[in-house]
Amino acid sequence: MQTTIKEKQEKIISTMSGLTDWFDKYEYLNDLGKSLPALSDAEKSEKNMLPGCQSKVWLTTELNNGHVILKAESDSNIIQGMLALLLDVLNNQPPEDIVNADLFFITETGLSENLSPSRANGLSTIVKELKRHAQDFIG
Amino acid sequence: DTTYAGLPFKFEAGTPNIAGAVSISEAIEYINRIGLQNIKNYEDDLVKYTVNALTEADNIDFYNKTGKFCGVVSFNLKNINGYDAGMILDKMGIAVRTGTHCAEPLMQYFGVSGMIRASFAMYNTKEEADQLVKGIKKVQHLLQ
Which of B76, B78, B87, B94 to mutate to test the interface with A (most CBs of A within 10 A)? Predict the structure, then answer.
């Protein structure tokens, strides 16, 4: 499964390697974000809101057959796109693999360079929370 | 034993901010040479020019309905997150402030989570205002 996380990231890097212009990257993220299923109003609760993010981000997790099912949404188009990428990489994976995942695609795609410092911090928070949730399933 | 000098010198330990004092003196003289009223007139014209240009664009919400301005234009782009807009405008060399502007009660009054604010000074030009409008249209095209 770790290979799968790695392979998914490599596919993202390959796809985004053709997007050299930051404008194209934002457009790509915007389009990706639109494809992410919306959370229900009940799921967009205070309890599911991630702390410390400049925009609102909600995350739900559940364990199903030893795999973590992730759902997420943001009120920011660009963060929504980043969530789509993160979920593509980490969704439906064993919790141990999520906890140990090296998310190299974030730097190798140049995405982290194109975020403002506070947004980059927010993204770091999202990754930490994803891993923390996965860790909770391990115990 | 410590003895203190009289006021104000007892609170003036160390080297005074000489460079700061000289700078602010120059800055005051610079402003006075131009004239505060001239600066205000220029900024008002620039802000009105920008508001008129933005009003012609679609899907922009304004909050100042008084017709009076003090160098800033605050707005939101419908269905576009303000932070996203600010980040993209930044990439185009356009600096706006986004978020709650340390004025959460005001944001609550208007029922918004934040606003985008363009702030003009006497150094800004109509060409820059045009760039802002153009940049906003590009943001809308990208994110809507």
Answer: B87
Across chain B, which has 144 residues, the per-10-residue mean pLDDT values are 90 90 98 96 95 89 89 94 94 95 95 95 96 95 88
Q: Do A77 and B143 touch (CB under 8 A)?
A: yes
Chain A residue closest in CA terms to B86: A116
pTM for the full model? 0.83
| Cβ neighbour number for residue A25 with a 10 Å cutoff | 19
Q: Which of residues 55-84 of B touch A (CB under 8 A)?
A: 80-81, 83-84
Residue A56: closest CA among A33, A38, A36, A72: A72
Q: What is the ipTM of this complex?
A: 0.80
